[in-house]
Amino acid sequence: MSDQHVSHLVAIVGAANVLLGDDTLAYVTDYRGVFRGQALAVVRPGCTEEVSAVMTYCYENGIPVVPQGGNTSLLGGSVPDTSGKAVVLALTRLNHIRHIDELNATMVVEAGVTLIAARTTAEEAGTLFPLRIGSEGSCQIGGNLSTNAGGTAVLRYGNMRDLVLGLEVVLPNGKVWNGLRALRKDNAGYDLKHLFIGSEGTLGIITAAVLKLFPRPRAVCVALLGVETADAALQTFGLLRQRLGTDVTAFELISEDAMTLVLSHLGRQHSPLMTLHPWHVLVEMSSTATQEDADAIFVTTLSEAAERGLISDAAIAANEKQVADFWLIREEISDAQTRTRGSVRCDVSVPLSSIPAFIRETSAKVLAAAPETRMVVYGHVGDGNVHFNPLRPGNMTPESYLNRHGDSITRIVDQAAMDLQGSISAEHGVGTAKRDELLNVRSQVELEIGWRVKQALDPLNLLNPGKVLPELPSAA
Amino acid sequence: MSDQHVSHLVAIVGAANVLLGDDTLAYVTDYRGVFRGQALAVVRPGCTEEVSAVMTYCYENGIPVVPQGGNTSLLGGSVPDTSGKAVVLALTRLNHIRHIDELNATMVVEAGVTLIAARTTAEEAGTLFPLRIGSEGSCQIGGNLSTNAGGTAVLRYGNMRDLVLGLEVVLPNGKVWNGLRALRKDNAGYDLKHLFIGSEGTLGIITAAVLKLFPRPRAVCVALLGVETADAALQTFGLLRQRLGTDVTAFELISEDAMTLVLSHLGRQHSPLMTLHPWHVLVEMSSTATQEDADAIFVTTLSEAAERGLISDAAIAANEKQVADFWLIREEISDAQTRTRGSVRCDVSVPLSSIPAFIRETSAKVLAAAPETRMVVYGHVGDGNVHFNPLRPGNMTPESYLNRHGDSITRIVDQAAMDLQGSISAEHGVGTAKRDELLNVRSQVELEIGWRVKQALDPLNLLNPGKVLPELPSAA
User: Which positions fall inside the FAD-binding PCMH-type domain (chains A, B) (predicted)?
Assistant: First the structure.
């Protein structure tokens, strides 16, 4: 039976693009090696028509399909389960930039285009595609869309959902919906693209998208600030927004423990600030003004923050090299944790006004439960999004720390976020890892609507089964 | 039977809030008097719980429900059909601002809050709710959401869909979905709010929303430009976006005939430009910079446009009074048309890069079909959205012009927009007026997905029946 399926799939995409056995390994395991599944085959279609033919075949034969982009999910969203029944549909070969329209400020790209390729193409056309996340070299636009990717420029430009005007989607039954509209305004009926964005491949296969482009900033200003409390950081953010408006592009918090960790990882003696502070903020402003004008208002505003006693110290990047250097500190925190091993990773969000209380109370609870934990707390605090990642004390092994405290810390952090009307997954999505947790944090009504939408679009439950939607006690 | 329904409804909302007979007239007719229906009753619940109870009763008794806000729909979206079977659910009494959070830049408002009240509340808190449409005095937030309202600040701030973080919705069966989340980032499951935004009350009753607030600009710069071609206008737009970035808040085109019409309507001899041009542009920049700094870059950029030969003339508003005065010209065009009578109103959008071709070719076709037509063309051209509203020649009665040319002009304009991958309803929605037209401009696949979503959420088809979704030949 399986052989028969394989030969049909080979007839559609060619033998070179149907991988079996050991050749599937890189596709059935996530890049961190945490989630391991099995697949009937990995199929790599080369165009939308081939995606459609594969989906039609799988639909008619009841074969589950797991769509996959760069396979950079942190939550198991992009790999199959262990049954070996599913086909992994790798979109890698749909990697063409179809069209760029500079005046309309749009770009039509296929799902398998990497984020870096999309960004570079926009840049070469003198414009900007603003999504900025750590995995940009390997993640793909299709994955960015299906997970509604976030990152370090959300503050100014929004999440991936906000960066797209139209989609081309292959439905579970193989039909193609051409919604590749490049319009800023279109109220002629339901806006269907939002069904597919952020639904992690459970409702349809995104094969191409019309992305929004933005004026490329002429000036970029970056500073590292030392602040004494999270509350002072938030007040600084409020002041910057008032003075600089939406030019405030990133506002990233870094705790003292996070800074200590990353400096050691980078082999540096100190940050650009020379001394450590309880909290640090990496702030970026970008502007279409001249660099000179932008520098002036940036420095004036930071001076005002200092005069008000909100910040204790500030280092301003003097050139592009320093801009990159400052950002490296922020970007390497995640890797520093991975290499140190033994951190509990929580990706939560709360309303901005609740950030100080969230951090204060949650830190206290975690330290009470797991004394001497290093409070590695950082993230996109301008969006209310904190990577709250408690790290083992130096004198404890990763295994003993995670075994002893892992689950309870996750519960403490997630509960604290929910108590403040927050989210247990601000930007990383659900996948399999957080699926069942939704039973605790979403209402029955909300979960039921989700399942009704799922059944409407994927009645046979073939698309990325077991992801996002938790099984309901009273099976919907 | 009907009496029994009425007494049940009275038991829920009180006798004063169940209107019958002649008291329903203002609710069953749209404000222009174009669409006239009948209702079993008009019910005005005072809170979400009452909405839920009314919906539950209607669901259990198979009573259709037509939700209504300010009843300012141009397309019949907010009034019932002539069967007299439906209840009109007026959300007017849900008019409370529940909460404002300045640091989080959010405001929780109920569906019946008027747009002007929401804007004013934001302003009094030193912040900005940016939606700006002509009907702001009477339209309500619930209607703005269910129609994804647009208007004159979309260029900078987006459509209504982009201005909301969370919703509270009563489902057709009366269950309440509390999705009032005030988070910039939340990827914990499907983003259900987008189902309800823009679906014109066919999937659920929006009872409250978390709206985004923005930094209030310190500076506003407005100019009226004279340009010789639509192409030059578009090139000017490109230059402004490069130089001023997202501070370009509005870019409104006004044709010579539109200018002549509105000046006569306002009883003015001339515009601030003194002479007429083939095209005029009202441009607004807003900025958190000081007025002095903003003025400098605004003037410099307009000078650059003049040096490049893109604009022939420019008048810059010198003070707030002039800002209002310049805007009045743009805002009164619609009323000038209504009073003149005999215009065919088309609300289309195309990619920005296609605007010049669209205007040129469509004007030629309309003039060929209906000679001496006045080409009243204006709108949010920075969004690719044109109100293309051919007006009768002065020597023809409104009736004879509309009878003779109305339908054919609509077909010409809509077809031209579709030929350029545009939309036949950029911001006004579908309602009943454009419902069947969707059969011609949307694919079967797209219409089928719409119906599947409708059936998933409103299986008895009780919510605003006959709106938005056209009957499919092969009934889905």
Answer: 35-216
CB of B185 closer than 8 Å to CB of A384: yes
Interface test with B, best of A184, A212, A240, A453 (most B CBs within 10 A): A184
What percent of chain A clears pLDDT 90, i.e. is strictly above it? 96
- Please tell me which of the candidates B181, B188, B452 has its beta carbon nearest to residue A434: B188
| B179, B215, B441 member nearest A245 (Cβ) | B215
Residue B214, both tokens = 């923005």
- Judge: B194–A199 Cβ closer than 8 Å, yes or no: no
- Specify the 3-state DSSP secondary structure of B159: coil
**A443/B177 CB distance under 8 A:** yes
The CATH label, of 3.90.1150.10, 3.40.50.280, 3.30.465.10, 3.40.50.720, for the domain at A97-215 is 3.30.465.10
Closest chain A residue to B158 measured between Cα atoms? A184
Residues in chain B: 476
- Does the beta-carbon distance from A427 to B192 stay under 8 Å? no
Q: Which residues of A touch B154 (CB under 8 A)?
A: 184-185
Place of tokens 């299709």: A142
Tally of residues, chain A: 476
Fold of B341-419: Alpha-Beta Plaits (3.30.70)
The answer to whether A362 touches A416, Cβ cutoff 8 Å, is: yes
pLDDT tens, A387-439? 999 999 999 999 999 999 999 999 999 999 999 999 999 999 999 999 999 99
ipTM score above 0.90: yes
Q: Do domains A2-90 and A219-334 have the same CATH topology?
A: no
Of B115, B81, B80, the closest CA to residue B95 belongs to: B115
Tokens representing A418 are 């929910």
Best CA proximity match to A128, nearest among B245, B363, B310: B245
Indicate the fold that domain B2-90 takes in CATH: 3.30.43
Closest approach of A433 to chain B, Cα-based (Å): 11
Token pair 């749209």: residue: B30
Of B154, B288, B297, the CB nearest to A184: B154
Do the chains contact at B186 and A426, CB–CB below 8 Å?
Answer: yes
**A410-420: pLDDT as tens digits:** 999 999 999 99
CATH number of A219-334: 3.30.70.2190
CA B376 from chain centre, in angstroms, equals 19
Where exactly are the structural domains of chain B? 2-90, 97-215, 219-334, 341-419
Q: A275 exposed, middle or buried (CB, 10 Å; 0-12, 13-18, 19+)?
A: exposed
Closest CA to A86 of A113, A64, A114, A68: A64
Nearest to B52 by CA among B24, B88, B13: B13
Q: Which residues, in sequence order, are CB contacts of A241 under 8 Å at separation 6+? A: A248, B105, B215
Rounded to a whole number of angstroms, the distance from the CA of B464 to the nearest CA of chain A is 14
pLDDT at B473: 78
CA–CA–CA angle B89, B91, B92 (5° rounding)? 125
Q: Are strands A41-43 and A87-90 parallel, antiparallel or unpaired?
A: parallel
Identify from B178, B181, B186, B187 which residue to disrupt to test chain A contact, counting A C-beta atoms within 10 A and taking the largest count. B187
Q: Say if CB A279 and CB A253 are below 8 A apart.
A: yes
